[in-house]
């Protein structure tokens, strides 16, 4: 099953939060009443500037301006009731309040424009990413699959996490990866890798040839401005590519600088560390390294968990990284879908405010008895 929890979207720009509007109006009322009743040498009018200032933090320019106008009217009322509106002290307080109200109204307008830009950019990036990341099938041969993508709370900085799976005549091939960078450029790079994988993974080629094809696609990207010859490029993608035969109780893995998958078996969690990892895609031209697959046992009832570094690099309020292997070991065991629900709930609880600083993706694969 493919999970796509909705991103906590930005609130509608300029939309006032009605419960919060009570705060500036209550402040105006309290300051006005106390100022009228205060002794002659006590002046609380300057506190009225807090009303439009507070409003600008959550409301649009029209509401901010209205609150500022109410505050000015309250200051004039205080001046009339205490002395006169032309009293020098009250005149300067009124002028200062008018100027500050104008300033914070302009600030609210600029914030509203900024929020509109972020909302539009985030919408475009999310739409592009939903096209790139196609939902995975629940069942592929003798495998049950589940996937999840958790978008970060970092404005419009959507990431380039990617995953895909495809059937071959003899099994299933999967990829999970993470493009360096953020935004639409990262989504475009992820689309390049996924397109190359989908075009070649189902063909009768061995795993090293498939990964070499992915490397060639990244290295030949015409949109990559890159660096001068002889210097490492800016664009690269970490990836783990897996080949799971239908009739062999194994999984073949090539890791290109990606965090190791986790094998969950009988309450134990074993990282699938390869002996000879390859460099990330896009960097192999600078490192003399081949693509050597390594085989691991993968039996019925086993679950393999793939993930991106947004999961293991999530920090709690004290700065501690998310302990994925330990938390995965706490899973009682009820299929890949339940595993991801368990980890997502726990990961968001680990992160301050229930939000992540980086996008995170996970794919869980369980081998079951029988075919599709």
What's the arrangement of secondary structure elements?
Blueprint lengths: L1 E2 L14 H20 L12 H7 L4 H22 L5 H45 L6 E2 L2 E8 L8 E10 L2 E12 H18 L6 H13 L17 E9 L4 E7 L5 E4 L2 E4 L22 E4 L5 E5 L1 H4 L11 H6 L6 H15 L9 E8 L5
Parallel strand pairs: 1-3
Antiparallel strand pairs: 2-3, 3-12, 4-5, 5-6, 6-7, 7-10, 8-9, 8-11, 11-12
Helix pairs in contact: 1-2, 1-3, 2-3, 3-4, 4-5, 5-6
Characterise the protein shown here:
It is a single chain. The protein is built from nine helices and twelve strands. 40% of the residues lie in helices and 20% in strands. A hairpin with a 4-residue loop joins strand 6 and strand 7. By secondary structure, it is an alpha+beta fold. Helix 1 packs parallel to helix 3 (61-82) and helix 4 (88-132) runs parallel beside helix 5 (183-200). The longest helix has 45 residues, at 88-132. The strands form two sheets. Strands 1, 2, 3, 8, 9, 11 and 12 form a seven-stranded mixed sheet that branches. A five-stranded antiparallel sheet has the order 4-5-6-7-10, covered by helices on one side.
